[in-house]
Each structure stands twice: as structure tokens, then as C-alpha cells.
Specification:
The chain is α+β, with helices and mostly antiparallel strands and 143 residues long. The protein is 30% helix and 20% strand. The protein is built from three helices and five strands. A five-stranded antiparallel beta sheet has the order 4-3-2-1-5, covered by helices on one side. A hairpin with a 4-residue loop joins strand 2 and strand 3. The longest helix has 33 residues. The termini are far apart.
Length: 143
């Protein structure tokens, strides 16, 4: 008998077992996550909708999400993809709202930009290309 064929088949069977074991574990974790959903949690659906859970109907597996104040939508429990962590407050400003020294060291572009940095962007492409017969600054034809 050829032992290399048996070895290759054993390695393939082991790899398949490991891959299916990992996917089963991920499925169990996702199911446990969805069963523990409660009102007040901020979540994201599989399609990318962000919102806060306002109601959980255990019997029908329906979650009611409020995406904006007054806008509530109903989703299947399986459509909830993940919890969204609340944003962490930025401690880079002092009590007067001024930037700290750390911002200057790290180059906080939003706070160091000036009015001179604003670009003038045309509404269409007509201002970006030379037209036949246009003259350059030095008076020569642009062709």
C-alpha cells in the first residue's frame, strides 16, 4: 500500500474537521449573542442599519429598532449583526475647549487647518481642460 495517499487523506480529513469545528463555534457564539439582545443596546443590522433596540418580541423573534428619533422598524432577530460600542469621549480639549499640547504633537489636522487651505473645486470639468484657441499666460496658443 502507498502510505503517502493515506497520509494525505488523513491530513485533508483533519483540516476539514478543524474548519467545520470553527464555523460551528462561531455559529453558537452568534446565536448566544442574539438571544441576549435587550432594549437599550445599540446594534447594527446585517445590511448596515444602526439603531437602538426598543422592544424584543421573544415569541416571534422580532426586534424593534429605533434608528432616528421617532423612526422604528421591525427586524428578525437573525438580521442583527453586532453590537455597536458607544463612542469614547475625546479628552484632547481642556475645560475652555482649547486644544491640548498633545494635539499639536500628533498633528490634529482638523484643528490646525486654516482658511487658506480651502480648495476651489469647479462644479464641472469645463474649467479643468484647455479649449482650442485658448491663450496661455505667456500669450502663446495652448495647442
Amino acid at each position: 500500500m502507498d502510505f503517502s495517499l493515506i497520509l494525505i487523506l488523513a491530513l485533508a480529513a483533519g483540516a476539514m474537521f478543524l474548519m467545520t469545528n470553527r464555523s460551528r463555534k462561531a455559529q453558537k457564539e452568534a446565536a448566544a449573542f442574539r438571544t441576549n439582545l435587550a432594549p437599550g443596546q445599540e446594534v447594527m443590522t446585517g445590511s448596515g442599519l444602526f439603531g437602538t433596540i426598543v422592544d424584543v418580541d421573544e415569541e416571534k423573534d422580532i426586534i424593534t429598532i429605533e434608528s432616528t428619533p421617532g423612526t422604528q422598524t421591525r427586524w428578525l432577530r437573525a438580521a442583527i449583526a453586532k453590537l455597536v460600542e458607544p463612542p469614547v469621549e475625546d479628552d484632547s480639549t481642556d475645560e475652555q475647549g482649547e486644544s491640548t499640547e498633545e494635539d499639536a504633537v500628533h498633528g490634529d489636522a482638523a484643528r490646525t487647518s486654516s482658511v487658506d487651505d480651502v480648495l476651489d473645486v469647479p462644479d464641472d470639468l469645463s474649467g479643468l481642460t484647455d479649449k482650442p484657441g485658448d491663450k496661455r499666460d505667456d500669450g502663446t496658443d495652448s495647442k
